[in-house]
Amino acid sequence: MSNSVIVIGGGPAGLQAAATLGNFGLDVTLVEQHDVLGGAVAQHQYQVLMPDFSSGPALVARLAGAVQNNPHVTVVTSASIGAVEEDQEGFRVQLEGSHPHELQAQAVVLATGFDHFDPRRDGKYGYGLFPDVITGAELEEMFAKGPVRRPSNGEVPQSVAFIYCVGSRDRQVGNTYCSRVCCAVSAKQSIEIREQLPKARISMFYMDVRTYGLWEDTLYWRSQEESGVVYVKGRIAEVTQKAGQPVLKGEDTLVRGPFEWPFDLVVLAAGMEPSQGTRLLSQKFHVDLEPHGFVQQSEPMRNASLTSRPGVFVAGSASGPKAIEDAIAEGDVASLAVMQYLKTKVVV
Amino acid sequence: MSNSVIVIGGGPAGLQAAATLGNFGLDVTLVEQHDVLGGAVAQHQYQVLMPDFSSGPALVARLAGAVQNNPHVTVVTSASIGAVEEDQEGFRVQLEGSHPHELQAQAVVLATGFDHFDPRRDGKYGYGLFPDVITGAELEEMFAKGPVRRPSNGEVPQSVAFIYCVGSRDRQVGNTYCSRVCCAVSAKQSIEIREQLPKARISMFYMDVRTYGLWEDTLYWRSQEESGVVYVKGRIAEVTQKAGQPVLKGEDTLVRGPFEWPFDLVVLAAGMEPSQGTRLLSQKFHVDLEPHGFVQQSEPMRNASLTSRPGVFVAGSASGPKAIEDAIAEGDVASLAVMQYLKTKVVV
């Protein structure tokens, strides 16, 4: 077990970390709680990814294939982490599931991802009450199954609203941070809806549009200029329902007027929170959390994967909301930190 | 030269890449055009870094020390890149400077950074005309030298305005993209100014405030709630001067009124553009550019450092605007890609 590593979490960050470590010849066990690999991309069946409109299934197939075909990587699915001990030899981790056994490793990578904010926790959105109010993740699942339809009656929506910052930047629900990707994901989704519905009215209700960096052109400008999506700066006070249609009540902060607009379909851009796995595993491995409950990056200017505990590393949205490409980069950053921790040298 | 690498650019991304490659035993030459290492952090003497208010000089000292003390890294400063050839052995690169010589390497990392947008290119800001209109980088230099003062008369400013998105998100100047960090850097600077000037009026003129992710709390909320900084959604039409004071003319898009406000000091949050080095080196190494002139990342979902050309990698803001911590992460991501390209294995 002189250079063995446990990677916990089979989403993009964990898959990348496991594949990279395996490529360099380290012995890796990848532990995933679900029965499939791919994290949120697989669970919500993302077909088309932000920012580059590339294929979600192709990404999962490539990342999962890279670990499954790697002789140095053992993949364990449908398994959870039991007791964890550390001694001079390294970590001893009890795996629970259909084949309980003990793993030993010198280093651990926490790639335990995020959970979406559940909009039921904020009654004003009517989520769970009105069938045509759905989350962005549910819209992705709808894209995967077929054309966009109103859940209430199966009809083609003539108007679609996106509500930004659901569960993010909102002290009332306890999440003061920004979830980074929801603005851009919503813009991507609006472009996809436009492709299906040339005549639908599509409106985005936002506080600030945060399609930062190079996402600005391909998502924000494009959604407005090519897809005719309308951005309205306004905070939604309440979603109600009238005559079988969700109604958005709020104030347009730019034209300074209150509004009450019906839509056929309302998409809640629900933010990202520390996953149950992140909360649980951070306790078992005794790593510090930052104030929101994400794993604290102890020295992000040195290496983004360092935690408060030597030998335990973090990658992906376990340390905060993150885009897929950033999670993949952090899988590599964590791999490198593990190799440096194990004092490896490379040979050509 | 079986595992030798040239890293071009001695900012955070290049320093990290060179140090990491050297730590793994690869032979690295780091080439920097200026006589000091540290990139923009050193050139503008950033004292306090976004997002964590850590020390800029300490970061540069650590990153530069890591390459200078590494027996596998040769540092060449005040040097530029001449002719580049590639044959079966790898790259042959002519170094120009006080000691011209040829370097040979199997892989190259372009870490050629960014240039700040020059606000002289957009006459409406009055930059270069009115002495109390300065850039964010010049404010950093002012912080390094002493307390904040009005350049025109050396007096303590009673009012400070920040204008966001100068040279960014602006089709008229040719830059449609967002520069990612200026919102957060301005928020950091406003907090620093408040520490010096408890009574000054500090106003931010923005389109969207993009303190994304976990920057939201420590920069945006903090600047408002602890530092009493006022955010005004409004685009500045023109900066003029009256009675020796810069005057901001524009429209407050939230309260829908035109305004004409004098300030003692105006800070332009100038965006990031592809550096001269990025433009020049991308030609010499024949790597594709994306539409704005940054180096195109060919497969960011696989590895952020891959370019259109095998053996040539990119790290940091050469591929687009980036925060320092992201540039450092990309230095590691590029190192890993180089090691994989050279088909190295690790030994413990």
Features:
FAD/NAD(P)-binding domain; elongated; alpha/beta; 2 domains; homodimer; 27% helix; 30% strand; 5-stranded parallel beta sheet; 348 residues; 8 helices; 7-stranded mixed beta sheet
Largest beta-sheet details of chain A: 7 strands, mixed
What oligomeric state do the depicted chains represent?
A: homodimer
Give the percentage of residues in beta strands of chain A: 25-35%
Largest interface, C-beta within 8 A = A-B, 64 and 64 residues
Rg over alpha carbons of chain A = 22 Å
Record the strand order, biggest sheet of chain A: 11-17-12-13-14-15-16
Provide structural commentary:
- The structure is a homodimer.
- Chain A is α/β, with parallel strands linked by helices.
- The first copy, chain A, folds into 2 domains: about 180 residues, FAD/NAD(P)-binding domain; about 160 residues, FAD/NAD(P)-binding domain (3-Layer(bba) Sandwich).
- Helix content of chain A is about 25%, strand content about 30%.
- The first copy, chain A, contains 8 helices and 20 strands.
- Chain A has a 7-stranded mixed β-sheet with strand order 11-17-12-13-14-15-16.
- In chain A, strand 1, helix 1 and strand 2 form a beta-alpha-beta unit.
- In chain A, helix 1 packs parallel to helix 3, helix 1 packs parallel to helix 8 and helix 5 runs parallel beside helix 6.
- The longest helix of chain A is centred in the last third of the chain and has 18 residues.
- The two termini of chain A are about 25 Å apart.
- The model of chain A has no long low-confidence stretch (mean pLDDT about 95).
- Chains A and B meet through helix 6, helix 8 and strand 20 of A and helix 6, helix 8 and strand 20 of B.
